[in-house]
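Changelog-adjacent note: as of this version, every example in the card shows the full chain rather than a window. The one below runs 115 residues end to end.
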Amino acid sequence: MMWSCIVLLVARVAKADGGAEGAAECRELSPITTPEELKRELAADDAIVSVVEKTRAAIKDILDGRDDRLLAVVGPCSIHDRASAMEFAERLAELSRCAIIRGECVRAPARVHAH
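Full-length structure tokens:
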């Protein structure tokens, strides 16, 4: 079990060297979820694990120059609204199936990669 502590800074005193001294007091101690607990609670099924492994391998091939596709990393830095995140993901999925030429989505022919 891991714990977090809400800390209250009691006093802050300026020191001659420009630093500061302070006294801190733990006001509330509460448990936080460990990474191991999260992995158990949010366990990925075999299909999800397979997608992650294949995607990581494809990205590695692009970065190592074995795959000539362009890798674009896009997205919000955080997700606060599930519905908006799903809409964003659907738009990206649609864009991944086309090439943008003069602002229009043009369907690209299917490519077969030998791996």
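Structural remarks: The mean pLDDT is 74.
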